[in-house]
Amino acid sequence: MVHRAVCKDTGEFFAVKTLPKSRPTWTGGMDGGMREATTSRYLLKIQAEVNFLARLKDVEEVVQLIKVYEDDSEVHLVMDLCQGGSLYEKMEEREEGCAEAEAYFTEAKVREIMRNVLKMLVSCHSRGIIYRDLKPQNFLYVTDSPTSDIKCSDYGLAMSYIPSCPEGIVLNKRAGTPVYMAPEVVLRRYNEKADMWSAGMLMYQLLGNQLPLWNGEVPFSANLDDIFFDTLIRGIDFDLIATKAGPEAADLCSQLLTRDPGNRISATQAERHAWIRS
């Protein structure tokens, strides 16, 4: 739950994200019953989100954590208040034909969004954080204006790793939203490069006004196998991006949506790409 709150001393408004310390847990009985329970793994997940936000406190592209409060049943994260809604909501408005929403998705605006996304990923990867859940729902507009900055808001699925480790890190647990999962996440063997595939999915969606796979939109009848099949096998039409935004945009998108993570562009390399810098 996220509420708007006001500081009684200053009158300043903030967002307060409330996380329960317990959640429905299977009792283990034959009846399949559920009960509210707290596990050490779940509490560590909450602690990890707080830690990640604290480690990124100087990153402008991240919603800032102001303070954390705790009571017997919940943890309350006091954060910057973003009042412009999510990137996903603006994308939904565009799909519904809202003329005002088109102003949020000119090539120049999409370039600025991707600059923010890549800066956030550079900061995460350089500090040993894999984001793992890059999607439009997790980016918020500060104000309700096409010129507003966007900020990343949710680090609930992020993981730590050691950037300087020559062997790197290989994770084997799927995490994130299936449509934005990298092929290697589907195959359960991945590292921080998985974030770059998700960034490519977002970039394609922003410029092309459709997803790069599943004929542009995941059908309601699709199951995980259907989603993962396209992620692993189907070709992607980058000519659509070239038509919408030119060959440089298509080149960056293709380097992000490269199935082999060893050949996929890094966050630092993507941030220096000609289309981002233009």
Secondary-structure blueprint of this entry?
Layout: E1 2-6, E2 13-20, E3 23-26, E4 34-37, H1 40-55, E5 65-70, E6 74-79, H2 87-95, H3 107-126, E7 129-130, E8 139-141, E9 150-152, E10 159-160, H4 183-186, H5 194-208, H6 224-232, H7 239-245, H8 247-256, H9 267-271, H10 274-277
Antiparallel strand pairs: 1-2, 2-6, 3-4, 5-6, 7-10, 8-9
Helix pairs in contact: 3-5, 5-8, 7-8
Detailed description of the structure:
The protein has 278 residues and is of the alpha+beta class. It has helices at 40-55, 87-95, 107-126, 183-186, 194-208, 224-232, 239-245, 247-256, 267-271, 274-277; strands spanning 2-6, 13-20, 23-26, 34-37, 65-70, 74-79, 129-130, 139-141, 150-152, 159-160. It has 2 domains: 2-79, Phosphorylase Kinase, domain 1; 87-277, Transferase(Phosphotransferase) domain 1 (Transferase(Phosphotransferase), domain 1). Strand 5 and strand 6 form a beta hairpin.
Strand content: 15-25%
CATH topology of the largest domain: Transferase(Phosphotransferase), domain 1
Helix content: 25-40%
Strand order of the largest sheet: 1-2-6-5
Rg calc: 20 Å
The topology string of helices and strands comes to: EEEEHEEHHEEEEHHHHHHH
Q: Choose one word for the global shape.
A: globular
- The number of distinct structural domains comes to 2
Which keywords apply here?
alpha+beta, 278 residues, 2 domains, Phosphorylase Kinase, domain 1, four-stranded antiparallel sheet, 10 strands, Transferase(Phosphotransferase), domain 1, 10 helices, two-stranded antiparallel ribbon, globular
